[in-house]
TrEMBL record:
Hydrolase as UniProt keyword: yes
UniProtKB keywords: Glycosidase, Hydrolase
GO molecular function, one term: hydrolase activity
InterPro entries cross-referenced by the UniProt entry: I/U_nuclsd_hydro_CS, Inosine/uridine_hydrolase_dom, IUNH, Ribo_hydro-like
Official protein name in the record: Nucleoside hydrolase
PANTHER family listed in its UniProt record: INOSINE-URIDINE PREFERRING NUCLEOSIDE HYDROLASE, URIDINE NUCLEOSIDASE
Positions of the Inosine/uridine-preferring nucleoside hydrolase domain: 5-300
Recorded superkingdom: Bacteria
Protein's UniProt keywords contain Hydrolase: yes
Organism, scientific name: Pseudonocardia acidicola
Xref: Pfam families: IU_nuc_hydro
């Protein structure tokens, strides 16, 4: 039985790969795509999400725009140096025209999908957690319809956008706290600890490029991201963070998780956006299922196999 999914995203290079991965996965029943600010501004992330659905030939899936900014403090950080000024690695012109926009606000679309669902819905959060936090806060009656939240978020170790902060959490720490510190909906967190160990190398990208014209367009989006990875980390490979969260959502158990309460630093100091695991045996608070291990070679091979079916 396919898994009903809502994907909340800020495309975004790895979001683009993640969206296609979901759309090419037979276990996935993508009911809606919702969009937030994040890697680039909402106007671009919204258009990009609709471009990706057009590339995948899925105009049937509703796409709605949501939060244009974080819940409390203004957004400090975008990521054009990683995702290009257009959010698609500078390749947006290579995509088809975007599919039509759904007129609802993202949270309204999420609530409508949940209300109509007869099976538990998985929410995949692969951008700032603002829309998901707003859903939990404004539609508490809908939490029973959410099977789980799978969020690419956080890091128990080094950060990427700040020394100890991962981008999605740093973009809106208050939203991340709201989602990670609640007991109504199980949460699987996919942090940098595992995504930065699951690196797609040049051969992986070349094989995707050679798999057909639409795969070539998809792989072309990665080129600038790959250059940025090389410049920062000195490696010729990329972490497709968001795609890992999607694979876990459609193949539950792909990632090996540890249940840990997670505290989010929401102060304005140097640790803002840090996600801290409380490993004390008597730690209080709802556990988050934190993905810290996987067969990374098998994960990358499975991602590639599915993505190549785009042709
Ligand atoms: O830290 C990685 C996350 O931030 C990914 O979701 C990427 O798309 C960026 O938004
Ligand atoms: Ca993202």
């Amino acid at each position: 039985m396919p898994i009903p999914l809502i994907i909340d995203t800020d495309p975004g290079v790895d979001d683009t790969v993640a969206l296609v991965l979901a759309l090419q996965s037979p276990e996935a029943d993508v009911r809606a795509v919702t969009v937030s600010f994040g890697n680039v501004g909402i106007e671009k992330t919204f258009a990009n999400a609709r471009r990706v659905l057009a590339l995948a030939g899925r105009p049937d899936i509703p796409v709605a725009a949501g939060a244009a900014r974080p819940l409390v403090h203004e957004q400090e950080e975008w990521a054009p140096e990683w995702h290009g000024a257009d959010g698609l690695g500078g390749r947006s012109a290579e995509f088809p025209e975007p599919v039509a926009a759904d007129p609802r606000f993202a949270v309204a679309l999420m609530a409508d999908v949940l209300r109509e669902a007869t099976e538990p819905v998985t929410i995949i959060s692969i951008g700032p957690l603002t829309n998901t936090a707003l859903l939990l806060a404004t539609h508490p009656d809908m939490t029973a319809k959410i099977g789980r939240i799978v969020a690419m978020a956080g890091s128990l170790g080094a950060g990427n956008t700040r020394g100890v902060a991962e981008f999605n959490v740093y973009a809106d720490p208050e939203a991340a706290h709201r989602v990670l510190n609640q007991a109504d909906v199980p949460v699987t967190m996919v942090p940098l600890d595992i995504t930065m160990r699951t690196l797609a190398d040049g051969d992986w990208i070349s094989e995707l490029t050679a798999s057909g014209p639409r795969c070539a367009t998809l792989a072309g989006v990665i080129a600038g991201y790959r250059k940025a990875f090389n410049e920062r980390y000195g490696i010729d490979a990329v972490a497709l963070h968001d795609a890992l969260a999607v694979l876990e959502a459609v193949l539950p158990g792909t990632l090996r998780t540890t249940a840990l309460p997670i505290r989010v630093a929401c102060d304005l100091g140097p640790a803002r956006g840090a996600t801290v695991a409380d490993r004390r045996p008597d730690a209080a608070g709802p556990p988050v299922h934190v993905a810290l291990d996987a067969d990374t070679d098998a994960v990358l091979a499975e991602m590639a196999r599915r993505l190549r079916t785009l042709r």
